[in-house]
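Data card: per-record layout.
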Amino acid sequence: MGRGRRSGIGIGAFQHGGFIVDGGSIEDSHGEETVPPVIFRHPFPADWLFVVATPQVEAGLSDEAELTAFHELPSPPPEVVDRICRILVMKMLPSLIERKIKPFGEAMTRIEQLVGDIFSDVQGGHYASIASERLVAYMLEQGAYGAGQSSWGPTVYGLVRGEEQAQSLAEAVRSFVEGKWK
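The structure for this 182-residue chain is written out next.
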């Protein structure tokens, strides 16, 4: 099927769940990219929940269009990769292990913004659509600890603590979407 060529995260999440970090693409002895190795996995605290919303807009890239886009993208600047790695190692992972949702969410949102910069030429901005961008901003305004876009979008997600906050955010997002895009 060709799954996992770009990211080992999907395979790792399917197999074990939790928060997954892969080691990036590597080549085998024949110069072919292999499935990136999972280098870190940790379960999310049970009360950390994600509210997921998919605006009714054109889906993001997939299949051949996604492969073409990846091949056309320039390598990200080393300083951006360094910044993402620093945020991951110095803020995000410790926050997850110590169950500190606020700094974890901040780190998640910042990494999403940096990755959005990398893909902005292909997807036309930080997000796949203006609807996705507005939903991410709205989730943060409504108290999500962090928010971002799933892959090429348009699906977005917001991190909350507990069922009550999840229900509240889901209802707010539903009202926002119905009011904005009827």
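Known properties of this structure: The chain has two domains: 1-43, 44-180. The beta strands are 19-22, 26-27, 33-34, 38-42, 48-53, 146-149, 156-161.

See the next section for split statistics.
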